């Protein structure tokens, strides 16, 4: 039997406000546990929450970016459940009247393929704390620093049909929120977390299958792995005569293992009711229009600008404009060395490879934009070859120098471009390679260019890789042709 996968996402986007959604406590990442949770975050008796206007502004910006309906009247409800990291015993969230209504996100899947993913809504809510399971000798610790941090939860329709589309949507959403500046996008810090709803059904069937929800995936790679594993599991269950149980699941990206967590709750299990401490928020057109007027450049506009301003291909522009941090890095490096194409090649090549290998975001890169521009500038002025540039890049990455010039000087890597020195090396190689010279002389003219590689290689070996390849080729070609 052929099966069709159906995927919907619920994405928690941590808003980049300085303070929490209902209190003045800091949202800064990395503080000592339980040092940033105030009495309001803990719902201590006598405290009253006050809505953070910046959280509303950020939510509205997101709604405008996806061409969604903006809820001119919204209010908060209490979602009741009991868990150790939920200090209030309830979560303040939105259900009936969220701030952002229906919208859509357009995906470019490559090779001319596009996809529209419908957004059901996005609502504001507070985050819970965090359970810590390491170093507690069989017990769990609770860190409430994150409690009360503002989130928007973006809920899609079940429009995606495979892991590729789900990852493409996640990356596009990441691009949108970081471009808006409403989220830093640092998934390793929990700034974006994905809950993936997956079901399968016989191909051609209209009715949706029973879905499972895999929660708290914090990387594109883990999300893709979890979807592929869950699809395979569900198909195996169904083809062996079993039934899919609606449940919440967890995926461990380190062990590549998924497990059942609990049966899936329904909305009525949470006993939602309007929050008695918070009044409804009503917006007028002037307020929304003022936010619309200050909207920053969005990914699609940036992509077109990159193509026009930097003469980038569609592929290069797609990659470099998709992530706000990468776009800023690319533009800063290009401004410093004035060579967009070389910067694009390095960012998408050596830099991205290093970041992937070390599991770092571009914001954590050990070679900054100015340092990369310095390497490229030395390639352009023939101080170093492209091959030596890779060694310089590696040295800066490993902390062996803070600039291309410093590494080149310290390691004696400057390229030999002196014509006299190169001619002397060429004469010595030709004198010691009579057999290869005879082969070159007797070869068909169209085969001689390939035979140049031997002579170039010998000079590179003699110069320890520091001879200027372009100058070597010109000198060798002239000298060898004089022997014909």
TrEMBL record:
InterPro entries tied to this protein: Asn/Gln-tRNA_amidoTrfase_suB/E (IPR017959), Asn/Gln-tRNA_Trfase_suB/E_cat (IPR006075), Asn/Gln_amidotransferase (IPR018027), Asn/Gln_tRNA_amidoTrase-B-like (IPR003789), GatB (IPR004413), GatB_C_1 (IPR042114), GatB_Yqey_C_2 (IPR023168), Gln-tRNA_amidoTrfase_suB_CS (IPR017958)
Reactions that this protein is recorded to catalyse: L-aspartyl-tRNA(Asn) + L-glutamine + ATP + H2O = L-asparaginyl-tRNA(Asn) + L-glutamate + ADP + phosphate + 2 H(+); L-glutamyl-tRNA(Gln) + L-glutamine + ATP + H2O = L-glutaminyl-tRNA(Gln) + L-glutamate + ADP + phosphate + H(+)
Organism superkingdom: Bacteria
EC number of the protein: 6.3.5.-
Keywords for the protein's UniProt record, in alphabetical order: ATP-binding, Ligase, Nucleotide-binding, Protein biosynthesis, Transferase
Domain Asn/Gln amidotransferase stretches: 328-480
Keyword Transferase: yes
Gene Ontology BP terms: glutaminyl-tRNAGln biosynthesis via transamidation; translation
Enzyme class: ligase
Pfam families found in the cross-reference section: GatB_N, GatB_Yqey
Residues that span the membrane, as ranges: none
Keyword Magnesium recorded: no
Molecular function as annotated in GO: ATP binding; glutaminyl-tRNA synthase (glutamine-hydrolyzing) activity; transferase activity
Protein family according to the UniProt entry: Belongs to the GatB/GatE family. GatB subfamily.
Assembly and binders: Heterotrimer of A, B and C subunits.
UniProt function note: Allows the formation of correctly charged Asn-tRNA(Asn) or Gln-tRNA(Gln) through the transamidation of misacylated Asp-tRNA(Asn) or Glu-tRNA(Gln) in organisms which lack either or both of asparaginyl-tRNA or glutaminyl-tRNA synthetases. The reaction takes place in the presence of glutamine and ATP through an activated phospho-Asp-tRNA(Asn) or phospho-Glu-tRNA(Gln).
Name this polypeptide is given: Aspartyl/glutamyl-tRNA(Asn/Gln) amidotransferase subunit B
Organism whose genome encodes this protein: Pseudoteredinibacter isoporae
